[in-house]
Amino acid sequence: MSVPFIDLQRFEDGFLDDWSAVVAEMSRNTAFMGGPAVQQLESNVAAACQTQHAIGCGNGTDALQIALRAAGVEAGDVVLVPDLTFWATYEAIVNNGAKPVTVDVNRADLQMDFDLFCAAVEKYKPKAALLVHLYGWGTGRLQEFRAFSQKNNVALVEDGAQAWGVQYKGQSIYKEAQIATISFYPAKVYGAAGDAGAVLTNDSETAKQIRSIGNHGRSEHYSYDYVGWNSRMDSLQAAWLNLGYGHLEARLSSRRQVAALYRAALQGKYECLAPPTDYTENGYLNCILLESAARRDTITASLKEKGIGFGIVYPEPMSVQNGAGKYLHAKVGGDTAAAVCQQILNLPLFAYMRDDEVNQVIETMLALA
Predict the structure, then answer these.
(1) Using one digit for the tens of pLDDT, what is the confidence trace for 128-172?
(2) 3: in domain
(3) Does residue 205 share a domain with residue 118?
(4) What are the E-state strand segments in the chain?
(5) Across-strand partners of 131?
(6) Which of 127, 270, 296, 336 has its CA at 20 to 30 Å from residue 58's CA atom?
(7) Is the pTM of this model over 0.70?
(8) Domain check: are 241 and 254 in the same one?
(9) pLDDT for position 164
(10) Are both 87 and 195 inside the same structural domain?
(11) Which domain holds residue 285?
């Protein structure tokens, strides 16, 4: 039996019929930009994330770029970023004209290393830092990151693209963030029908600026306070997300259950990473660290043969990407990120995986141990 790495077609009963009705109604009313659907989505997101404001935008990358702009990042400023992340995080810094400094990660939780972060702040005096909540959890030293950044006047932008539903000390991970971002890319835990994103903040003036930057810098229809760009969330994406909102707890529960089953069955045979203390993960990704790239090659060849999907998230750190060198201002730390990229393996994990699919993956991995 084949098992996909991810399946986006596990819809709840009646979901597609409801979606068809919504699309027909929006089409009749030509309600394609802004309006009640986007307003409802922003209200839902703010409530779920326990923040005062959620501002929809075109995609998760734009959310990062807008957040950096709202945090005061200008051309020539230094911005810290973990060496282990998705390319958009690095890209957003460069697209704002700033200078990225990569910081190595902590092997225990795969997040930016706090001690190296402190050293980088002391040495490079950054205007801002991008703290990425990777793999469905966050750093075990989140409070320290926030406190140190505030003390040293470093704007901390938290990239929560993979963190929808993650709880830290019983609260949304986004709740106490200065500025945080979300991606609603379809493969995310809370995914749209295309590209969409959001920026979160608890500050009303910052929220006003964020909304303006993503709408051509407008203050009024033909008056402009900023040079922004067009990154408005369209109503169809908001409507899809609104339909999914009521199913999120079921989807999260399903994902968390699969993550727990993998960990219980495979720990001891493999190094199965778990979220740090004080976290409730969202089941976004299963993460196993193998002994070597050669060992991973052997296992992935067997998985391919049996029709079992897998991921390698991510295969290379930011600092060695071909597109990074021209812009990389500095690299802080050693090669932990590079080592993790050679060892990491991600097993299939998505909402509503069937028991037989989960068991097939577990039995195959145990046979390969």
Answers:
(1) 999 999 999 999 999 999 999 999 999 999 999 999 999 999 999
(2) no
(3) yes
(4) 53-57, 78-82, 99-103, 128-132, 155-159, 167-168, 171-172, 179-183, 197-201, 218-220, 223-224, 271-272, 279-280, 288-289, 330-332, 344-345
(5) 158
(6) 127
(7) yes
(8) no
(9) 98
(10) yes
(11) 248-368
